[in-house]
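Researcher: Let's do a round of design. I'm pasting the structure tokens now; please hold your answer until I've finished.
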């Protein structure tokens, strides 16, 4: 039996891909790649269920398309859509890479202030949209950024743009691509 204290959240299954049972997997910890353990774990109806990982291919630094054993149709893969994915802590070769369970998703940063290295304060992260492969921070704009309309800003939650995180001050510092805020 799998115990909750023996697992760590490493991401989330998104939507099925194709008709052969592949599913997109957004991960915040790629420890599954460095392990001999071929199982990813999901909670279904309150029970932690292991799924044998048959194959995967990365689509970005934080996403992959995953094929699980006995998941051979789009219909079956849909059962896992939008489910959190866990990994057995004991099977991870590099224990230092396992982040604390309360900081393993982008949702952890709701309430942080987004700061651009050049422009300064952008606004408060009010929500995270992880319904697609590209996770987005939803930003409530402050007065220092001239908003073109009243809608919130959508900023990609991408590791490559984050320069550092100040957890004590609840600030994320980024280098946004030029022109992103004027789209």
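Researcher: That's everything. Go ahead.
Model: Designed sequence:
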């Amino acid at each position: 039996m799998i115990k909750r204290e023996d697992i760590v959240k490493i991401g989330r299954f998104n939507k099925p891909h194709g008709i052969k049972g592949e599913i997109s997997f957004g991960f915040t910890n790629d420890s599954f790649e460095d392990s001999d353990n071929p199982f990813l774990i999901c909670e279904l109806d309150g029970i932690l269920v292991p799924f044998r990982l048959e194959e995967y291919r990365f689509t970005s630094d934080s996403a992959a398309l995953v094929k699980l054993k006995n998941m051979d149709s789009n219909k079956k893969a849909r059962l896992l859509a939008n489910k959190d994915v866990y990994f057995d802590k004991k099977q991870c070769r590099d224990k230092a890479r396992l982040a604390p369970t309360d900081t393993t998703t982008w949702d952890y940063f709701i309430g942080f202030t987004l700061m651009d290295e050049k422009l300064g304060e952008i606004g408060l992260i009010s929500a995270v949209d992880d319904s697609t492969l590209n996770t987005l921070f939803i930003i409530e704009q402050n007065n220092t950024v001239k908003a073109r309309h009243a809608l919130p800003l959508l900023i990609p939650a991408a590791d490559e743009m984050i320069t550092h995180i100040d957890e004590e001050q609840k600030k994320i510092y980024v280098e946004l691509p030029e022109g992103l805020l004027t789209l």
